[in-house]
Amino acid sequence: MTPGARESPPMGLILPFFLVAPLGLIAAGVMLALADRDSLTSVTTPKLLAATHAAALGWLTLSIMGALFQLGPVIFGGRLLSTRLIRLQLVLHIAGVSVMVVSFGAWRTETLALGGLATSASFALFLLNAAFAVRWFARGSLTRNYISTALVFVVATASLGLTYAMALHHGWFPLTAGRVAAHAHLGLAGFLALTLMGVSYQLVPMFQLSPHGEPRFGRVVLPWMAVATVIFAAVMSASPGPPVRLFAAGLLACGAVMWIVDTSGTIQHRAKRTFDIQGRATILSLMFLVLAVILGFVAASGRPVNLAVYHQRLQLGYAILAIGGWAGATLVGNSFKIVPFLVWNGRFRPLAGRQPVPTLAQLLNVRLANLTLWCLTAAVCVGAASAVAGSLAGLHLAGLMFVAAGALHFATQALVAARRPAVPSPSPAPPERILT
Q: Which pTM was predicted?
């Protein structure tokens, strides 16, 4: 069955994406906990590459895929081309990313290429369904424009990543730090950032009950970030000097700052008096993004801050803040809104009106959700601080904390899927008094 327009996809189709995604964070934490001292002098060591791909392709990308398949038909009136292709895509993605992470960790380039092929096939199937789900480049929606542009960067990122995987195995050309940075930012700034920014323009006002006016920089940030990402990737591929790197980094930073101003204004004018889990996650994500922008800009200079803090450590801290902090906190907060709705809509909506059904709030264990968010926050803080300070023990501790955060994220969502809260039956009406 393929859902039609304005129809929510089946719960059993979308829920596996959210349940499997935290396993990527667990894998990233394990790799970070196994990192050696070389990880403090280079961000391209096997364990760090494995951790980065586990977090970005496993945890974050699977969450985004599930969210787009759910929100596209519901919000944008799109449809899914084929549910069978979605199930096949999930299997290919899990297999491909798993092989890539293990291959990076053990530095087995022959199997890395195979994992890259499977992951690229997964992205191809994802694009087929996502294009129909969000009604690719249809007019009238700011959020849809962001997502449609982000999907173009999926093609660029996956193509370059597969090329690099093959180059590692066959020795076609050297993979310099600049080329790796170009590939990373096509995915981080092009796909992940544009998707999160666009979705936030839709979900933050919705969940925080803020006015739905046109955001101040909403239509400027999209072309700015897209062009800045292309310029950054092209510039970094040539391994330029500090002035050029700072210029390219400054372009990305300006786009991020404009989006921060818009999102902060939306939160400031919210109607809710207190923050829920999504609101707290949004605030934390903005703080992490500010720190990531500062750290990334300083790291782009290529110079040590002092005799002890080198720019490689700043790059690692920047990656932890951007991937684990900003993107991670954003997706964790939104998942605790999307998953309960998904479960309620699939399991309890058909019963509404015929018998008592639980509310969305009753499906989520709020204490466990808050614990997940604070554990992730602590892991990001410890990891970024340890990277900058050059503490390998601290980096290992952060890895274990990411494992705990991933386990909590999985447990919280699994409980939502399994939970069947008791709903009190309505009290019987009092008997009518018999008048004599």
A: 0.89
